[in-house]
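General statements about sequence and structure are easier to judge against a single worked case. In the encoding step, the backbone of a single protein was reduced to a row of integers, each denoting a local shape. The record that follows shows the chain in one-letter code together with its fold in token form.
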Amino acid sequence: MAVNRLAEEIRDRYGPLPESVLQLLEYARLRLAAQRLQIVAVEREAGWLAFRFDPSSPVEPDKLVAVAAGIPGAQLTP
């Protein structure tokens, strides 16, 4: 993955990565995964993460419901 290669390159040049850089790299991974799934927005709302899917997203609604059912406190709203 490009983000992992970037992290290695930075680590090789500058040494251990500070927490802020690690968080930025995780954000980049999240954005790339969201792009692949055609998620148009990932927003933080009052301690929750909200995902908005493009209507053409390859994510199957039934599978999303099944995953959410296994996560305590998860909610799906239209």
